[in-house]
Design brief:
The chain has 98 residues and is of the alpha+beta class. The chain has one domain. Helix content is 35%, strand content 22%. The chain has 3 helices and 6 strands, in the order βαβββαββα. A 3-stranded antiparallel β-sheet has the order 1-5-6. Helix 1 crosses helix 3. The mean pLDDT is 84.
């Protein structure tokens, strides 16, 4: 499963799947509506990622499988970016009710 520490990748993944940044016992979490976790802004979320030295492992086709892994175990994925399509998808997700 690919993983990332890139802020843009994390925010876009969250936006595409309607997830919010949160903290659970001071650890970073991406939560959907109704899931447990203390919602927070992006800065506290990324500080927690740095503090715990983790990366987000994800599968765009199955967002429920998202998890945080130690940075040392991270497997980066590089795929061709389609910038405008990514922006459009993110804005569509952002405009929906959380």
């Amino acid at each position: 499963m690919p993983s990332t520490r890139d802020r843009g990748d994390v925010i876009h993944f969250a936006g595409r799947h309607r997830l919010s940044p949160a903290l659970r016992d001071d650890a970073p979490a991406l939560v959907a509506q109704g899931e447990p976790g203390e919602r927070c802004g992006w800065e506290p979320f990324f500080r927690a990622m740095d503090r715990h030295r983790v990366a987000l492992a994800y599968d765009d086709d199955e967002p429920a499988t998202r998890r945080f892994v130690p940075r040392d175990e991270a497997q980066p994925e590089r795929r061709p970016l389609r910038p405008m399509e990514e922006v459009r998808r993110f804005l569509r997700a952002l405009r929906r009710d959380p």
